């Protein structure tokens, strides 16, 4: 494809993208109660149907896969490249200074739940496909935008896709960082349970992969209520947040927790430490970085006393070995441990052709990337150095679901993490640049698949 077909976006195209983003952000597609035709809730299905209608209205082939996933496809031929995005979002959480489901423009940034993770990227890939189609480009294969709606709660949507649809020959998921991802840490989520408390009721967090922003604890005998406030962040980067469970329990006299195994275990073995230093005898560390731990959900009610912990462990470590050691540690406090969810690490050869192709596309565009005023000259210099090298992350993406995928964007290396944050945002200019990057990525893969 001639580079002249990937010029900067026009004013009309930008307005069209903003209109789509406004519509899709407005759908609060947090996983909800299953209803007929919508196994992940009506709002997640509404987000999927919106994108499928958009695709169909623009001349693409679309398909709804039993309300669990869907796709927008263009082109013909026996081979297919797949781009996997998700339209479900984590709960908004507390502390926003605007409606999280109304797209807001502020100082050159677009703010709204999902603008970064992962509705914004889904829209930019769709628009890249639309630009290619409208330019007259004819791909040598089919290009399929695969849309899941249960990524934040285990990715059963893509497991269903794999059961009923063909797999792509190659592709990427724009649900992480640039330049390209060759390794993703293991994700081990554990459930710690103890006896139902006779004197305390407590509640904190909504998902294990989010740092909880609020915790409430009540003593039944006195009616005393203690509340703590934290700062939410993604479970893969708990050090960027402040855990409300820890903030709350710090305000309680330890003597009042001695008969509470789950809380005693938390304060002794976890607390406000995000490294796992008190959980494990030796902390693993390798090319993918260090282990991290996030206590995401605490529930103490009339029937339950449990804590959910999200651990991101290095790619060369054994999750089962880590689990066994932590289980032994918890047992010393009278706490039972079971695996809530486990995604094993992803580790690819950094020099494989798919990664090299995507790095080449990224290098072509990175010189035009918009830098925030807060970015120092030294950071800019490092960000623009070439050749660009792939990176490892603690997050989990759809790349684990298919061996032919890697994560590719949307966050640039110098940008602050936005996933699962309050006031989640993305530079408006970055959105437009993503369209061009993904447009070139689609053609690069389509020409070589």
Walk me through the structure:
With 449 residues, this protein is of the alpha+beta class. The chain has 2 domains: 3-184 and 347-448, 3-Layer(aba) Sandwich (Aminopeptidase), CATH 3.40.630; 186-344, 2-Layer Sandwich (Alpha-Beta Plaits). The chain is 28% helix and 24% strand. The protein is built from 10 helices and 23 strands. It has a 7-stranded antiparallel sheet. Strands 1-2-6-3-7-21 form a 6-stranded mixed sheet, with helices on both faces. α1 (11-25) runs antiparallel to α3, α3 (119-135) crosses α10 (428-448) and α8 packs antiparallel against α10. It starts with 10 loop residues before the first helix and ends with a helix. 51% of the residues are buried. The mean pLDDT is 95.
Keyword list:
Aminopeptidase; 2 domains; 7-stranded antiparallel sheet; Alpha-Beta Plaits; 449 residues
Task: Please describe the topology of this protein.
Layout: H1 11-25, H2 42-57, E1 61-65, E2 69-74, E3 80-86, E4 104-106, E5 109-111, H3 119-135, E6 142-148, H4 156-164, E7 170-173, E8 176-177, E9 181-184, E10 186-193, E11 200-204, E12 214-219, E13 225-229, H5 244-249, H6 261-269, E14 285-286, E15 289-290, E16 292-300, E17 305-313, H7 319-331, E18 336-343, E19 346-347, H8 353-366, H9 377-383, E20 391-393, E21 405-407, E22 410-411, E23 425-427, H10 428-448
Parallel strand pairs: 3-6, 3-7, 7-21, 8-22, 9-20
Antiparallel strand pairs: 1-2, 2-6, 4-5, 5-23, 9-19, 10-17, 10-18, 11-12, 11-16, 12-13, 14-15, 16-17
Helix pairs in contact: 1-3, 3-10, 8-10
């Amino acid at each position: 494809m001639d580079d002249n077909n990937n010029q900067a976006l026009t004013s009309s195209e930008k307005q069209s993208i903003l209109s789509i983003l406004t519509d899709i952000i407005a759908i609060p597609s947090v996983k909800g109660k299953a209803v007929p035709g919508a196994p992940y809730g009506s709002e997640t299905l509404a987000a999927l149907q919106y994108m499928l209608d958009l695709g169909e209205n623009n001349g693409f082939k679309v398909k709804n896969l039993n309300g669990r996933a869907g796709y927008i496809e263009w082109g013909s031929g026996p081979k297919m490249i797949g781009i996997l995005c998700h339209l479900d979002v984590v709960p908004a959480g507390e502390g926003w200074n605007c409606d999280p489901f109304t797209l807001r423009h502020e100082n050159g940034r677009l703010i709204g739940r999902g603008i970064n993770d992962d509705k914004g990227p889904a829209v930019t890939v769709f628009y890249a496909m639309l630009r290619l189609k409208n330019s007259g480009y004819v791909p040598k294969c089919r290009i399929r935008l695969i849309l899941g709606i249960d990524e934040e709660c285990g990715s059963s949507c893509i497991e269903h896709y794999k059961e009923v649809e063909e797999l792509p020959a190659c592709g990427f998921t724009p649900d992480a960082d640039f330049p390209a991802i060759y390794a993703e840490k293991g994700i081990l989520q554990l459930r710690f349970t103890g006896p139902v408390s006779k004197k305390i009721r407590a509640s904190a967090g909504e998902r294990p992969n989010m740092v909880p922003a609020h915790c409430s604890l009540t003593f039944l005998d006195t009616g005393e209520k203690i509340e703590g406030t934290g700062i939410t962040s993604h479970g893969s980067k708990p050090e960027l947040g402040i855990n409300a469970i820890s903030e709350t329990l710090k305000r309680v006299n330890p003597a009042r927790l001695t008969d509470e195994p789950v809380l005693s275990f938390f304060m002794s073995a976890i607390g406000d430490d995000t490294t796992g230093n008190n959980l494990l005898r030796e902390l693993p560390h390798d090319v993918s970085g260090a282990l991290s731990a996030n206590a995401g959900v605490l529930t103490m009610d009339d029937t339950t006393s449990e804590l959910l912990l999200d651990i991101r462990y290095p790619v060369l470590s054994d999750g089962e070995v880590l689990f066994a050691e932590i289980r032994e540690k918890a047992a010393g406090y009278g706490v039972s441990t079971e695996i809530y969810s486990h995604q094993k690490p992803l580790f690819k050869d950094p020099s494989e052709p798919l990664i090299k192709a995507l790095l080449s596309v990224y290098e072509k565009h990175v010189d035009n990337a918009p830098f925030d005023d807060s970015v120092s000259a030294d950071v800019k210099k490092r960000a623009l150095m070439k050749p660009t090298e792939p990176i490892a992350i603690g997050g989990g993406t759809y790349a684990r679901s298919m061996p032919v995928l890697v994560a590719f964007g949307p966050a640039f290396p110098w940008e602050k993490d936005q996933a699962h944050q309050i006031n989640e945002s993305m530079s408006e200019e970055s959105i437009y640049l993503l369209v061009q990057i993904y447009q070139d990525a689609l053609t690069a893969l389509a020409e070589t698949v």
